[in-house]
Write a structure and sequence with these properties.
six-stranded mixed beta sheet; alpha/beta; 2 domains; Glutaredoxin; 170 residues; two-stranded antiparallel sheet
């Protein structure tokens, strides 16, 4: 009797996980937004105590990367983000890391030091996640020089994928 009940619970759990995965895959495969979709502005404090806002980067291409210290794909893509920032910074690019670790500033700082992050990192609030529709990490947005979202990607990006999207905008 207990085995049947446990199998019933397990079956419901697996069905729920499957449904969740289908929803996430649907979001991941969704087409990028149309051009000229204004990126929601924000003002948050970076790890050095400076205010970082999207408006201050108007005229530059912005890679806005939502990530977490607990996210394995995020750990994998961080060196590529560092390399892209280094490669394109003189051409009008800025990467902004948006850490989803709201209660772990020390962990975010340790992560930034370990990976030698060369771009501003802010710690998100729930409002910023909501404004961008972010539910999983990593999620990356590319914002053109006019402040419009022109590309959205769910999951880790490689240096080559980023460079391909960025070069057409610089």
């Amino acid at each position: 009797m207990k085995i049947v009940r446990h199998l019933s619970y397990l079956s419901r759990f697996l069905a729920s996980v499957t449904l969740l995965l289908i929803c996430v895959m649907h979001l991941a495969l969704a087409s990028p937004p149309d051009t000229d979709v204004p990126a929601p502005d924000f003002e948050l404090t970076d790890l050095g105590g400076k205010t970082v806002g999207l408006k201050q980067y108007k005229g530059k291409v912005v890679v806005l990367n939502f990530w977490g210290t607990w996210c394995a794909p995020c750990l994998k893509e961080t060196p590529d983000l560092v390399a892209v920032q280094k490669q394109f910074v003189g051409q009008g690019l800025v990467v902004i890391g948006v850490a989803m670790d709201q209660s772990n500033q020390a962990g975010v700082q340790a992560f930034a030091k370990k990976y030698q992050v060369n771009y501003p990192i802010v710690i998100t609030d729930n409002r910023l996640n909501h404004n961008y529709g972010v539910i999983v990490a990593p999620t990356t947005f590319i914002i053109d020089k006019n402040g419009n979202i022109v590309y959205r990607h769910l999951g880790a990006l490689t240096r080559q994928e980023l460079a391909q999207q960025i070069t057409r905008l610089l």
